[in-house]
Amino acid sequence: MKHLASPKAVAAGLVLVVVTNVVVVATAVWNRGGEPRAVVSLTERELALPEGIRDERSGVSLELVLTHEAPGRLERVARWRRHDLPPVEYGWCDRGKLEDLGFRTAVDPTDPKAAESYAMQLNRPVWLVLEYEGEAWNRWLADREARVEALRRSVEAGNAERGELADAEAILALDRTMRSRLFPVDAGLDAEALQRRYGDSARNLIVRGMIRAEVVPSEYGTRRLLGKVSGPIVRWIHVPREIAGPIEPLFSKETFHDMEMRERREAEEGWPAPAPPRYGAELAVGRRFEPWLTGVAVVEATGDVSGND
Amino acid sequence: MPEPSPRRVKEIFNEAVGLPPDERPAFLDAACGADDALRRRVERLLRALDEAGPFLASPTQTSHGGPSAAETEPLRPGRTLGTRYRIVALAGRGGMGEVYRAEDLTLGQTVALKLLPETVGRDAGRLARLREEVRVARQVSHPNVCRVYDIGEADGRHFLSMEWIEGEDLASILRASGRLPADRALWIAGQISAGLAAAHESGVVHRDLKPANVMVDDRGIARITDFGLAEVAEAIRGERAREGTPKYMSPEQLEGSEVGFPSDLYSLGLVLYELFTGKPGVAADSLEDRMRRKREPPTPPSSLAPDIDRRVEKLILRCLEFEPGRRPPSARAILEALPGGETYAGAVAAAQRRADRIAAFRDELAELRRAGLLALREEDLERVERHHERTLADLVQRFDVDVSDRGKQLSLGMRVVSLVGAIAFAASGYWFFYRIWGTLSTPAQVAILAAAPMLALVLTAVLARRERSRHFTAMAGISAVAFLVVDVSILGSTFNLTPSPFPLLAWGLFALLLAYAYRLRLLLVAGALALASFQAGILHGWSGGFWPEYFARPETWFPAGLALTALARWRPAALHHGFATVYRVLGVALLVAPAVFLGMAGALSYLPLEPRSIEIGYQVYGFAAGAAAIAWGIARRRPDVVYTGTFFFVLLLFLQFVNWWWAWMPKYLFFLIVALTSLLVALALKRLRAALVVRPAEVER
Questions:
Q1: Three-state secondary structure call for residue A65
Q2: Helix, strand, coil proportions of chain A in percent (round to 5)?
Q3: Predicted local distance difference test score (pLDDT) of residue B2
Q4: What DSSP assignment string belongs to B130-182?
Q5: Does A76 lie in the same domain as A3?
Q6: A208 vs B547: CA distance, rounded Å
């Protein structure tokens, strides 16, 4: 037996490195081989640029944002203006769905220890169905508009403050133009079954995501069990150098700290003006339900993708 | 005429071997009398000895070679070999050539020069192999291994220069005094095992270990000689030597199979056998005889030395197992299994403490003299100083201790700096890559990422060949692993792959490979933790959880804890010094630590029980497991296990104190209980330490 500190050890190490790299690359190639399971055209609202200057990184990845995740700028301004943003709840992820997803739901949500008990169950990986600008998004937006309309009537009846209405209208305008329209509409443990059920490959994306069980108080003080979508597991989508050109001029020119300070000053004046998406991107999902970008392009203010590739 | 008794043949042969050739006939006349068969047999063996060199017999008064006919005229004292070595005296003639005591004129030190037989010098292939062996053997730096300095050629003669050792070889000692007293035999056995362990850990196989190749100086320090010189022995020995008495050959060596570490362990077993019993472990006079009887178990040492320690006997018999796989896993394991030799590292630590005491004494003495509180005569001071200098020089040579605070700080500093440097190096690579990432095409990204760990691996191998301290090797090795982590992580980001636990498997295997190849304990820890994380992640994934959150499910650590604890007894765990300790400490930690978390938050358990019941259960388990670890560590004399068990036991205890009493007990009482408990634990630890301390006598001797 020869000692390992020999060419054999070096050779074994090299083989290990090569095999590891080959497996990783082969996995990616296999995922992207053949017809994609879905190809959906998204915009900056759903695929956000990282905030702040990127002087330490020359590459770029876009963040896949879901409807319940408000844009960072909107969240910060709301915090400085001491205003809560409207919650986005996924009612379909109820107690029954959570049971289907493998959660233990024996503890009643009204039990004093329920919150801690469900928090300890941690996240569970699931397959998430994300619907782009579909019925769920429209329904949520219509509900928001109806609430603002109800508030307007209350103001006219003298039952509410005008300032409150102004805030609600500003936030609604921002939601209309900046919030992600990628709405989780279902989750399951069988990706293929979900693929069959949600077959519109131009609108629905099925990706690996996480859900955790939470005890949520309702508007009327009752407590119920609801699944909280923790997000897609692959959140950052790499933009290959070959297609990154169009969005390079859009990268932030100021540091995150400077940007925050500026936003804070502006927040004292009022809500930011709605900013329509500046670019669109085509996101594909492959055999392993892993996403990649096939094209990125600057779009007109209408929000349409002006062209890919 | 009946066959002469082999025993009688051996006795006469052994005595004749020690005589000059011209005195042998007269001796044989007297010893054999009219028994011609006996005389012919002995003469045949003596002729074989003359032809084959030291293989058949013990050497003369130097270990640097056994008796044999010289191939060339001896060099006269005062002659200079090349421009560097001046011959002082002929020290001996061996099968590997003549051995001279010489002066290295360049470095001004005494060396042993071994002139190689012409058969070696003429054979370019053999010479090249010998150079390679010497190159590897030079990497072994250990107080119990005779250092090989160089291989050279001067005046048409090839020679090896090596450390000069003033003393006597073990074969001569055993021949003169028979069996050694048990404590001295143990002391020598420990040193031989330590030297062999160091050599094996450097990748060097001796292949010719025997008492004649162990040199003992007048302080009782044993050194194994002729490491890496099996090539020379083979050149002289050839097939003819196999007709002799291959007393110290392993069965696989006899069969001509590949000779590796287990073969050396067999030879070590035979050396130990002879050391403790005074008799050879195998009684075979020829290769044929030995081949015929190779499966015969050796006579139990206790039948020759009834008072032999049973642990030693068991160890020797394990070394002499026919199947290499049934022998002890390593020389290090043999060292640790010897009574009193549980931790050679403990002896090193004791040596370091002695050096520290001397340094402290010197400082205090200087202070007292400056303050005018102590007046000593100059000759007394000089005598003490000389004694300390000798002692320190001895400790440095034997145990490589640091003799000054600065030295210790530098050693520790080097380790810390190596680690910080490696991490910073990897971080630098990571950020540099991100800085250029966007300017590269995807194939270029993949190529650069894959090349980084490979280049770092090659650099590690190159540094390992050039460096003994391994500080820079460690730096390169850690960087190689870190680069593989960066490689796979960034590739995952580049291709938007779903995070999986499998990269942990690759990282763990890569770290273990480097740890074993270059004896890097830090990478062993990293590799073991990566594989433990892989196992825990897989387990948590099977339970339906998101695999990276295994950390919040402490029960997933148990299988890795059990596996690591079991692996501490596994053969490769004993291959390098300290590796078994890493397995044991990590194993015990992963078995006990979950109780710390689950004892506080039962809801983190998979068990479908009330959290409070789970908490109580794990509190009980934690105390029981900690106590069991302490008890097991004491029984097996494993300080690492004792300390790990104690740490978790005490941690659990204090956490429970907070849990039980902080809210309702008056604070003065709470802290009083904590203080009293600490006192009790300190007293218990003091007793434990006394039970575990390594006897310092070996160091003081």
A1: coil
A2: 40, 25, 40
A3: 55
A4: HHHHHHHHTT---TTBPPEEEEEEETTEEEEEEE---EEEHHHHHHHH-SPPH
A5: no
A6: 13
Tens digits of residue pLDDT in B502-553 = 999 999 999 999 998 888 888 999 999 999 999 999 999 999 899 999 988 9
Say what the pTM is.
0.65
A window 257-296, beta carbon within 8 A of B:
288, 290-292
Residue-range definition of the domain harbouring residue A186: 33-298
* Residue B303 · residue B278 · CB < 8 Å: no
Question: What is the H or E stretch that residue B644 is in?
Answer: helix B639-661
- Across the interface, which of A5, A24, A291 has its CB nearest the CB of B492? A24
CA distance B320 to chain A (A): 18
- A33 contacts chain B (CB < 8 A): no
Taking only the tens place, the pLDDT of each residue in B424-436 is 887 888 888 888 8
For B401: left if phi > 0, alpha if psi spans -120 to 50, otherwise beta; the answer is beta
Query: By the 8 A CB rule, do B59 and B171 touch?
Result: yes
Of residues A10, A27, A238, nearest to B457 (C-beta): A10
Looking at the fold, whether A125 and A257 belong to one and the same domain comes out as yes
Clarify whether residues A92 and A74 are in a common domain.
yes
Query: In this structure, what token pair is assigned to residue B613?
Result: 């019941």
Residues 199-228 of A with CB under 8 A from B: 208, 210
Taking only the tens place, the pLDDT of each residue in B634-647 is 777 777 888 888 88
Q: Is residue A308 part of a domain?
A: no
- Count A/B contacts: CB-CB distance under 8 Å: 160
How many structural domains is chain A composed of? 2
Residue A309 lies in a domain: no
CATH T-level assignment (fold) for domain B80-337: Transferase(Phosphotransferase); domain 1 (1.10.510)
